[in-house]
Write a structure and sequence with these properties.
Number of strands: 13
Largest sheet: 6 strands, antiparallel
Radius of gyration: 23 Å
Number of helices: 7
Structural class: alpha+beta
Distance between the termini: 35 Å
Shape: globular
Strand content: 25-35%
Length: 247
């Protein structure tokens, strides 16, 4: 059996790691801190079977401090990379903030999402901390989230059968069509766009949404539809970033 720890305790690894640190200015690429304030380490952004740690291209590695390295490996709750999904008024202190170390009673429940950590319910103070990097709680982003939530809560879905006998559910939005095929954990969705003045629809290729619940698939389908039809470049970019974090 390969001794993984031994691979990181030899001259070749030390030389390689120092090359990565030198390229990154001897500071953490995530938080910007330097030694001796923090301990710097080298993180592989992806791993390939059969390669020694120093046999990767430098572009596959980044310099991180010990704390940020732990977050990269999901050993501790990340302080960045969360996306705000929705905000709900519980009309009283009926919720509990799920941020690690908090546990405060909350009235305004903020549902946030992280691609490695999933969903959490947090309060107003914690959501500002966890989503500050990518969201900044801007009005434009909150407006997009409201549109997504309004679609999921108000859209009417009908059952249908394809010519091949496969079942689906479907809805329309601004004369365009969304179809969702499959069942729990094996969903896919498809968008049909209708140009003004034309009688037919242009069907996009089906998109897989495996290991997602139906509500999330509806959100994803709406995000893709709006991304294809919106003329607002800023809105399209916001939708693209949300989609990347949810898939």
């Amino acid at each position: 059996m390969k001794d993984t720890k031994k691979s990181y305790r030899n001259e070749e690894w030390y030389r390689f790691a120092n090359s990565v640190k030198k390229r990154d200015g001897y500071k953490c690429t995530k938080c910007g801190r330097k030694e001796p304030e923090v301990i710097l380490q080298v993180h592989h952004t992806e791993y390939k079977k059969g390669l020694e740690p120093w046999e990767y291209p430098l572009s596959n590695c980044i310099t991180v401090c010990k704390g940020c390295h732990a977050r990269e490996h999901n050993l501790i709750e990340p302080s960045r990379g969360w996306t705000l999904i929705s905000i709900e008024d519980l009309e009283g202190l009926y919720g509990v903030c799920e941020r690690k170390g908090c546990g405060s009673e909350i009235r305004y429940e903020h549902i946030i999402y992280h691609p490695q950590w999933g969903y959490k319910s947090v309060g107003s103070t914690c959501v500002e901390y966890l989503t500050q990097e990518e969201q900044e709680l801007s009005k434009d982003i909150l407006k997009v989230f409201k549109k997504i939530n309004d679609f999921v809560s108000s859209s009417y879905w009908e059952n249908g059968i394809t010519k091949k006998g496969n079942s689906f559910i479907t809805t329309t939005h601004s004369h365009n069509i969304i179809r969702i095929y499959g069942k729990e954990k094996y969903y896919s969705f498809q968008i049909a766009l209708k140009e003004k003045g034309k009688k037919w629809y242009d069907w996009e290729k089906p998109i897989k949404a495996y290991n997602k619940d139906l509500s999330t698939v509806k959100e994803l389908s709406y995000i893709v539809l709006k991304g294809l039809t919106s003329y607002d470049n800023e809105e399209v970019e916001i939708l693209r970033n949300i989609y990347k974090k949810m898939i």
